[in-house]
């Protein structure tokens, strides 16, 4: 999946969970969107469901920006395909 495709899916999921619709790769979930820990947990669940991956707790707080989620998902996708 291309970065633009990931961004589009992430925008959709963030909107479903938070009602916020405008994101860029540099958007910070906590600083820019003022999400609380429950919002973050709900987003992580949405990411896991949509992308069919498990995100360990140790990785959750590394995903502070939209770009971090895109990069993380691309790495998971590459690993799943043996690349």
Automatic annotation (TrEMBL):
Coiled coil: none
Stored SUPFAM superfamilies: ACP-like
InterPro entries from the UniProt entry: ACP, ACP-like_sf, PP-bd_ACP
Protein name per its UniProtKB record: Acyl carrier protein
A UniProt-annotated Pfam family: PP-binding
Domain Carrier: start-end pairs: 1-77
Source superkingdom: Bacteria
Gene3D superfamilies reported for this sequence: ACP-like (1.10.1200.10)
Single annotated GO MF: acyl carrier activity
UniProt keywords, alphabetically: Fatty acid biosynthesis, Fatty acid metabolism, Lipid biosynthesis, Lipid metabolism, Phosphopantetheine, Phosphoprotein
